[in-house]
Design brief:
The protein is α/β, with parallel strands linked by helices. It has helices spanning 2-8, 52-69, 83-92, 102-110, 125-137, 149-161, 184-195, 217-237, 255-261, 283-299, 303-306; strands at 72-73, 97-99, 115-121, 141-146, 166-171, 200-206, 246-249, 269-272. β2 (97-99), α4 and β3 form a beta-alpha-beta unit. α4 (102-110) runs parallel beside α5 (125-137). The chain binds pyridoxal-5'-phosphate.
Protein backbone atom coordinates (compact mmCIF):
# COMPACT_ATOMS: atom_id res chain seq x y z
CA UNK A 1 0.00 0.00 0.00
CA UNK A 2 2.79 2.39 0.87
CA UNK A 3 4.14 1.96 -2.59
CA UNK A 4 0.82 2.67 -4.24
CA UNK A 5 0.37 5.87 -2.28
CA UNK A 6 3.90 6.96 -3.16
CA UNK A 7 3.23 6.44 -6.84
CA UNK A 8 -0.18 8.08 -6.82
CA UNK A 9 0.58 11.58 -5.49
CA UNK A 10 -2.99 12.56 -6.38
CA UNK A 11 -2.53 11.78 -10.04
CA UNK A 12 -4.89 8.83 -9.59
CA UNK A 13 -2.94 6.80 -12.10
CA UNK A 14 -2.65 3.69 -9.98
CA UNK A 15 -5.19 1.10 -10.98
CA UNK A 16 -3.56 -1.80 -9.15
CA UNK A 17 -6.68 -2.23 -7.04
CA UNK A 18 -9.06 -2.00 -9.99
CA UNK A 19 -9.86 1.61 -9.20
CA UNK A 20 -7.98 4.85 -8.75
CA UNK A 21 -6.93 5.71 -5.23
CA UNK A 22 -9.03 8.61 -4.06
CA UNK A 23 -11.79 7.93 -6.59
CA UNK A 24 -15.05 9.44 -5.39
CA UNK A 25 -18.59 8.11 -5.68
CA UNK A 26 -17.14 4.71 -6.59
CA UNK A 27 -19.50 1.83 -7.41
CA UNK A 28 -18.82 -1.26 -5.34
CA UNK A 29 -20.95 -4.33 -6.00
CA UNK A 30 -20.79 -7.75 -7.58
CA UNK A 31 -23.14 -7.23 -10.54
CA UNK A 32 -22.27 -5.78 -13.94
CA UNK A 33 -25.45 -3.81 -14.53
CA UNK A 34 -25.00 -0.43 -16.22
CA UNK A 35 -26.29 1.41 -13.16
CA UNK A 36 -25.87 1.16 -9.42
CA UNK A 37 -28.22 1.71 -6.54
CA UNK A 38 -27.49 4.31 -3.89
CA UNK A 39 -30.22 2.88 -1.66
CA UNK A 40 -28.67 -0.61 -1.82
CA UNK A 41 -25.37 0.99 -0.70
CA UNK A 42 -23.59 0.16 -3.96
CA UNK A 43 -21.99 3.62 -4.27
CA UNK A 44 -19.46 5.07 -1.83
CA UNK A 45 -20.70 8.07 0.09
CA UNK A 46 -20.87 11.00 0.05
CA UNK A 47 -22.34 11.14 -3.45
CA UNK A 48 -24.28 13.96 -5.10
CA UNK A 49 -27.69 12.80 -6.30
CA UNK A 50 -29.37 14.68 -9.11
CA UNK A 51 -32.91 13.92 -10.20
CA UNK A 52 -32.95 13.26 -13.91
CA UNK A 53 -36.41 14.78 -14.43
CA UNK A 54 -35.39 18.03 -12.70
CA UNK A 55 -32.10 18.18 -14.57
CA UNK A 56 -33.79 17.69 -17.93
CA UNK A 57 -36.49 20.19 -17.03
CA UNK A 58 -33.91 22.84 -16.15
CA UNK A 59 -31.85 22.22 -19.28
CA UNK A 60 -34.85 22.37 -21.58
CA UNK A 61 -36.42 25.32 -19.81
CA UNK A 62 -33.32 27.52 -20.04
CA UNK A 63 -32.84 26.59 -23.68
CA UNK A 64 -36.43 27.60 -24.45
CA UNK A 65 -35.94 30.82 -22.51
CA UNK A 66 -32.84 31.66 -24.58
CA UNK A 67 -34.58 30.76 -27.83
CA UNK A 68 -37.56 32.92 -26.90
CA UNK A 69 -35.24 35.93 -26.53
CA UNK A 70 -33.29 35.18 -29.69
CA UNK A 71 -30.02 34.64 -27.81
CA UNK A 72 -27.66 31.66 -27.78
CA UNK A 73 -26.96 29.58 -24.69
CA UNK A 74 -23.46 28.57 -23.66
CA UNK A 75 -24.01 27.19 -20.13
CA UNK A 76 -21.14 27.45 -17.69
CA UNK A 77 -19.85 23.90 -17.29
CA UNK A 78 -17.66 24.45 -14.23
CA UNK A 79 -20.81 23.98 -12.15
CA UNK A 80 -21.06 20.28 -12.93
CA UNK A 81 -17.89 19.44 -14.88
CA UNK A 82 -19.84 16.42 -16.11
CA UNK A 83 -19.29 15.54 -19.78
CA UNK A 84 -22.61 13.71 -20.01
CA UNK A 85 -24.44 16.88 -18.89
CA UNK A 86 -22.43 18.98 -21.39
CA UNK A 87 -23.57 16.66 -24.18
CA UNK A 88 -27.18 16.78 -22.97
CA UNK A 89 -27.09 20.59 -22.91
CA UNK A 90 -25.69 20.62 -26.43
CA UNK A 91 -28.39 18.18 -27.56
CA UNK A 92 -31.03 20.48 -26.03
CA UNK A 93 -29.73 23.20 -28.36
CA UNK A 94 -26.92 24.92 -26.46
CA UNK A 95 -24.50 26.67 -28.82
CA UNK A 96 -21.55 25.57 -26.68
CA UNK A 97 -20.20 25.23 -23.15
CA UNK A 98 -18.42 27.84 -21.02
CA UNK A 99 -15.57 26.86 -18.71
CA UNK A 100 -13.11 28.58 -16.39
CA UNK A 101 -9.72 26.91 -16.98
CA UNK A 102 -7.64 25.38 -19.77
CA UNK A 103 -7.95 21.80 -18.43
CA UNK A 104 -11.73 22.32 -18.32
CA UNK A 105 -11.60 23.42 -21.98
CA UNK A 106 -9.95 20.11 -22.79
CA UNK A 107 -12.61 18.13 -20.91
CA UNK A 108 -15.36 19.97 -22.81
CA UNK A 109 -13.60 19.42 -26.15
CA UNK A 110 -13.09 15.74 -25.42
CA UNK A 111 -16.80 15.56 -24.58
CA UNK A 112 -17.61 16.60 -28.15
CA UNK A 113 -18.54 20.23 -27.47
CA UNK A 114 -18.00 22.34 -30.57
CA UNK A 115 -17.92 25.91 -29.20
CA UNK A 116 -16.03 26.44 -25.95
CA UNK A 117 -15.80 29.77 -24.23
CA UNK A 118 -13.22 30.12 -21.49
CA UNK A 119 -14.72 32.98 -19.47
CA UNK A 120 -11.35 33.69 -18.00
CA UNK A 121 -7.85 34.79 -19.01
CA UNK A 122 -5.49 32.23 -20.58
CA UNK A 123 -2.28 32.68 -18.63
CA UNK A 124 0.99 30.76 -18.74
CA UNK A 125 2.65 28.59 -21.37
CA UNK A 126 1.37 25.31 -19.90
CA UNK A 127 -2.25 26.45 -20.20
CA UNK A 128 -1.63 27.83 -23.69
CA UNK A 129 -0.17 24.44 -24.65
CA UNK A 130 -3.38 22.75 -23.49
CA UNK A 131 -5.47 25.09 -25.65
CA UNK A 132 -3.18 24.51 -28.60
CA UNK A 133 -3.52 20.74 -28.10
CA UNK A 134 -7.31 21.15 -28.19
CA UNK A 135 -7.05 23.19 -31.41
CA UNK A 136 -4.79 20.55 -32.95
CA UNK A 137 -6.60 17.40 -31.82
CA UNK A 138 -10.29 18.31 -31.83
CA UNK A 139 -12.81 20.24 -33.92
CA UNK A 140 -13.69 22.55 -31.04
CA UNK A 141 -13.57 26.30 -31.50
CA UNK A 142 -12.09 27.90 -28.36
CA UNK A 143 -12.41 31.52 -27.22
CA UNK A 144 -10.65 33.04 -24.21
CA UNK A 145 -10.86 36.38 -22.43
CA UNK A 146 -8.23 39.12 -22.35
CA UNK A 147 -7.95 42.26 -20.26
CA UNK A 148 -4.30 43.32 -20.49
CA UNK A 149 -1.72 44.16 -23.13
CA UNK A 150 0.85 42.00 -21.41
CA UNK A 151 -1.37 38.92 -21.68
CA UNK A 152 -2.14 39.69 -25.33
CA UNK A 153 1.58 39.91 -26.08
CA UNK A 154 2.12 36.54 -24.39
CA UNK A 155 -0.71 34.98 -26.43
CA UNK A 156 0.69 36.48 -29.64
CA UNK A 157 4.13 35.13 -28.86
CA UNK A 158 2.92 31.64 -28.00
CA UNK A 159 0.41 31.15 -30.84
CA UNK A 160 2.83 32.56 -33.42
CA UNK A 161 5.45 30.13 -32.16
CA UNK A 162 3.09 27.14 -32.66
CA UNK A 163 1.87 28.52 -35.98
CA UNK A 164 -1.73 28.93 -34.86
CA UNK A 165 -4.04 31.73 -33.70
CA UNK A 166 -6.35 32.34 -30.78
CA UNK A 167 -9.83 33.92 -30.70
CA UNK A 168 -10.27 36.36 -27.84
CA UNK A 169 -13.06 38.31 -26.16
CA UNK A 170 -12.19 41.52 -24.36
CA UNK A 171 -13.48 41.30 -20.80
CA UNK A 172 -15.26 44.48 -19.78
CA UNK A 173 -15.45 44.54 -15.97
CA UNK A 174 -16.71 46.84 -13.25
CA UNK A 175 -14.91 48.78 -10.53
CA UNK A 176 -14.63 46.55 -7.46
CA UNK A 177 -15.37 43.46 -9.56
CA UNK A 178 -12.98 40.69 -10.59
CA UNK A 179 -11.08 40.76 -13.89
CA UNK A 180 -11.76 42.95 -16.88
CA UNK A 181 -10.99 46.40 -18.25
CA UNK A 182 -12.51 49.04 -16.03
CA UNK A 183 -13.21 51.74 -18.60
CA UNK A 184 -14.41 52.15 -22.17
CA UNK A 185 -11.07 53.76 -23.07
CA UNK A 186 -9.18 50.73 -21.76
CA UNK A 187 -11.31 48.41 -23.91
CA UNK A 188 -10.73 50.54 -27.02
CA UNK A 189 -6.98 50.71 -26.37
CA UNK A 190 -6.88 46.93 -26.01
CA UNK A 191 -8.87 46.42 -29.23
CA UNK A 192 -6.42 48.69 -31.07
CA UNK A 193 -3.54 46.74 -29.61
CA UNK A 194 -5.05 43.40 -30.73
CA UNK A 195 -5.49 44.78 -34.26
CA UNK A 196 -1.69 44.69 -34.59
CA UNK A 197 -1.38 41.11 -33.37
CA UNK A 198 -1.62 38.71 -36.33
CA UNK A 199 -2.14 35.59 -34.20
CA UNK A 200 -4.77 37.05 -31.85
CA UNK A 201 -8.29 37.58 -33.24
CA UNK A 202 -10.79 39.78 -31.48
CA UNK A 203 -14.24 38.16 -31.76
CA UNK A 204 -16.28 40.06 -29.18
CA UNK A 205 -16.85 41.37 -25.66
CA UNK A 206 -17.43 39.38 -22.49
CA UNK A 207 -19.04 40.71 -19.29
CA UNK A 208 -20.11 39.14 -16.00
CA UNK A 209 -22.80 41.22 -14.34
CA UNK A 210 -22.88 38.80 -11.36
CA UNK A 211 -20.15 40.87 -9.67
CA UNK A 212 -22.42 43.93 -9.40
CA UNK A 213 -23.62 44.17 -5.80
CA UNK A 214 -25.08 46.79 -3.47
CA UNK A 215 -28.17 48.96 -3.78
CA UNK A 216 -30.07 49.53 -7.00
CA UNK A 217 -28.51 46.44 -8.56
CA UNK A 218 -31.01 45.91 -11.35
CA UNK A 219 -30.67 49.45 -12.70
CA UNK A 220 -26.89 49.19 -12.51
CA UNK A 221 -26.86 45.82 -14.27
CA UNK A 222 -29.09 47.18 -17.04
CA UNK A 223 -26.90 50.27 -17.43
CA UNK A 224 -23.76 48.13 -17.56
CA UNK A 225 -25.28 45.94 -20.29
CA UNK A 226 -26.42 48.99 -22.27
CA UNK A 227 -22.88 50.43 -22.03
CA UNK A 228 -21.51 47.10 -23.23
CA UNK A 229 -23.69 47.12 -26.35
CA UNK A 230 -22.77 50.72 -27.11
CA UNK A 231 -19.09 49.89 -26.72
CA UNK A 232 -19.39 46.78 -28.89
CA UNK A 233 -21.05 48.90 -31.59
CA UNK A 234 -18.29 51.46 -31.40
CA UNK A 235 -15.61 48.77 -31.89
CA UNK A 236 -17.41 47.54 -35.01
CA UNK A 237 -17.74 51.10 -36.33
CA UNK A 238 -14.00 51.58 -35.77
CA UNK A 239 -13.26 48.33 -37.66
CA UNK A 240 -11.70 46.86 -34.54
CA UNK A 241 -13.92 43.78 -34.46
CA UNK A 242 -15.77 41.82 -37.13
CA UNK A 243 -19.35 42.39 -38.25
CA UNK A 244 -21.76 40.70 -35.84
CA UNK A 245 -19.30 40.18 -32.98
CA UNK A 246 -20.10 38.19 -29.87
CA UNK A 247 -21.53 39.94 -26.81
CA UNK A 248 -21.76 37.56 -23.88
CA UNK A 249 -22.88 37.82 -20.28
CA UNK A 250 -25.14 36.25 -17.62
CA UNK A 251 -24.85 33.98 -14.66
CA UNK A 252 -27.86 32.36 -13.03
CA UNK A 253 -28.84 35.43 -10.97
CA UNK A 254 -29.42 37.94 -13.80
CA UNK A 255 -29.96 35.80 -16.88
CA UNK A 256 -33.48 37.24 -17.33
CA UNK A 257 -32.21 40.82 -17.37
CA UNK A 258 -29.31 39.99 -19.69
CA UNK A 259 -31.67 38.10 -22.01
CA UNK A 260 -34.00 41.11 -22.12
CA UNK A 261 -31.20 43.60 -22.79
CA UNK A 262 -29.55 41.36 -25.42
CA UNK A 263 -32.81 40.10 -26.99
CA UNK A 264 -33.10 39.74 -30.77
CA UNK A 265 -30.05 41.80 -31.67
CA UNK A 266 -29.26 41.81 -35.37
CA UNK A 267 -25.90 43.50 -34.98
CA UNK A 268 -24.47 41.09 -32.39
CA UNK A 269 -24.22 37.42 -31.63
CA UNK A 270 -25.64 37.47 -28.08
CA UNK A 271 -24.71 34.53 -25.85
CA UNK A 272 -25.82 33.75 -22.26
CA UNK A 273 -23.65 31.73 -19.88
CA UNK A 274 -25.63 30.71 -16.76
CA UNK A 275 -24.36 27.52 -15.14
CA UNK A 276 -25.86 26.97 -11.71
CA UNK A 277 -29.46 27.00 -13.01
CA UNK A 278 -28.99 23.42 -14.07
CA UNK A 279 -28.53 21.81 -10.63
CA UNK A 280 -28.71 24.52 -7.94
CA UNK A 281 -32.22 24.75 -6.51
CA UNK A 282 -31.43 25.88 -2.97
CA UNK A 283 -29.62 28.64 -1.04
CA UNK A 284 -28.52 31.73 -2.89
CA UNK A 285 -29.74 30.31 -6.20
CA UNK A 286 -33.24 29.74 -4.86
CA UNK A 287 -33.19 33.37 -3.64
CA UNK A 288 -31.89 34.51 -7.03
CA UNK A 289 -34.65 32.59 -8.81
CA UNK A 290 -37.28 34.18 -6.54
CA UNK A 291 -35.92 37.57 -7.60
CA UNK A 292 -36.16 36.53 -11.25
CA UNK A 293 -39.81 35.62 -10.59
CA UNK A 294 -40.51 38.95 -8.89
CA UNK A 295 -39.00 40.84 -11.84
CA UNK A 296 -41.14 38.77 -14.18
CA UNK A 297 -44.25 39.60 -12.14
CA UNK A 298 -43.46 43.27 -12.53
CA UNK A 299 -43.07 43.07 -16.27
CA UNK A 300 -45.45 40.11 -16.78
CA UNK A 301 -42.84 38.69 -19.15
CA UNK A 302 -42.88 34.93 -19.52
CA UNK A 303 -44.48 34.51 -16.15
CA UNK A 304 -46.17 31.24 -17.01
CA UNK A 305 -43.03 29.56 -18.28
CA UNK A 306 -40.90 30.97 -15.46
CA UNK A 307 -43.17 29.28 -12.94
CA UNK A 308 -42.08 25.93 -14.32
CA UNK A 309 -38.35 26.47 -14.26
CA UNK A 310 -37.29 24.29 -11.41
CA UNK A 311 -38.83 22.52 -8.48
CA UNK A 312 -36.67 22.18 -5.37
CA UNK A 313 -35.27 18.64 -5.08
C1 LIG B 1 -17.52 34.63 -15.86
C2 LIG B 1 -18.69 33.81 -15.44
N1 LIG B 1 -19.69 33.59 -16.30
C3 LIG B 1 -20.77 32.85 -15.96
C4 LIG B 1 -20.88 32.31 -14.71
C5 LIG B 1 -22.09 31.48 -14.37
O1 LIG B 1 -22.83 32.02 -13.33
P1 LIG B 1 -23.68 31.13 -12.31
O2 LIG B 1 -22.67 30.32 -11.55
O3 LIG B 1 -24.39 32.11 -11.47
O4 LIG B 1 -24.59 30.29 -13.10
C6 LIG B 1 -19.86 32.52 -13.77
C7 LIG B 1 -19.94 31.98 -12.43
O5 LIG B 1 -19.16 32.25 -11.55
C8 LIG B 1 -18.73 33.27 -14.15
O6 LIG B 1 -17.72 33.50 -13.31
Amino acid sequence: MNNLFKKDRNNHKTHALGYAIGQKGMACCDHELPSYSLLKEEISLPAAVIKRSHLENNMQWMQKFANHHGVKLCPHGKTTMTPEFFRQQQECGAWGVTVATAPQVEVAAQSGITNIMMANQLVGKANMAIIHRVQRDTDARVMVCVDSKQNIQQLQHYFEHVNSAIDVLIEYGVAGGRCGCRTVDEVIALAQFIANMPNVNLVGIEVYEGVIHGGDEEARVRQFLANTLELAGQLVADNLQPEKPIVTGAGSAWYDVVAEEFAHLDAFDAILRPGCYVIHDTGIYLDAQHKVMRRAEKTKVLLVSLAAISLPL
